[in-house]
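Open question from group meeting: does this chain pack into something compact, or does most of it stay loose? Before anyone orders reagents, we agreed to write out a predicted structure and look at it together. Recording both the input and the output here so the notebook holds the full record.
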Amino acid sequence: MRSIWNGAISFGLVSIPIKLVNATENHSISFRQIHAADGGRIRYRKVCELDGEEVTSAEIGKAYEDADGSMIPITDEDLGSLPLPTAKTIEIVAFVPADSIDPLQMDAAYYLSANGVPAAKPYTLLREALKRSQKVALAKYALRGRERLGMLRVVDDVIAMHGLLWPDEIRAPEGVAPESDVSVRDAELDLADALMDTLGEVDMDSLHDDYREAVEELIAAKASGETLEQPEAGGSGGGKVIDLLAALESSVRAAKEARGEDGSEEGEEPGADEEKASVTSLADRKPSASTTRRTPTGKSVSRSSSSGASRKTASSPKSSGAKKSTAGSGGPAAKKSASSGGSGAKKTASKAGASKSGTSKSTTSKKTAAKKQSGTKTATRKRASA
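Structure tokens returned:
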């Protein structure tokens, strides 16, 4: 790894030559600005406001802008001549517990590498002293033209330094907390604790930047002329008022299911509150007996599922009497039809059957008498002709 700064750690009267190396790297994907119309690259040019001429980096210096707008030039020689004891030194000023450092102060991280063989012994001494004391070292150092605050700690077998913000650079959180008084119930705290326990710990190496991977896939697809399928947009709960207790319960169940555990409460069967539904195939259905129902108009409709089609038989007191008159009185069919029409239909059908039976007998006797009379007249005519 390439060093970005060379100096020494000042540990009392002990001086440890070191090299400063970046401990982190940026994996963000950078984009260029282009002209949307033709794809031409957009570039920034450094131009002097007085003569309008473009200048190179070698011609650019530093200056401080005064309150009245005037520029006060400051050269590197001016800065180099300042009495800055930490110009090339990381000066340790104290050893403090690690939890006394506010994480808000954390800034860039660096590795400190021993510079040369003579630095190995004092470097190892400081590293082991930090390990045994379980403390961190506070130090001051100068980098990129200004003095900074740092924290030295041990990472594996290496001394690492975190740049720290000065205490007066941390803003107070005024007006950030909720202004209204909010009370939290014990049940909600219990569920929050359960959710924290269920989520548990995580392997930091398993965490990765999903967005960066998606951008890389997008770039690769566009470079090859393909089109990526747009994923379905997930619902966002932003701005919605939710039931906090219900949301916590759902979160605990979801977290347990994600970890392969049973998400239901003890003594509760999953899906016990859901209706049980059964599905029967049409081919497995058994034929059922015919059913009779009465329509609002008073007609009885008979349906049979065994025939595969609906058969309707409409009967009324009048029609049953008319139909049964042609078949004689008191037959089994007349009784069956009469029973489907109810007790009223029975009486009407019986009267109608009796009436038609009498009419039928009278007609038969008249026809018999007419035949006898015709036969007598025929015999008389034969005798007279003889």
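Observations to bring back to the group:
Residues 265-362 have pLDDT under 50 and may be disordered.
Helices lie at 76-80, 120-133, 186-199, 210-223, 244-258, 317-325, 332-340, 343-385.
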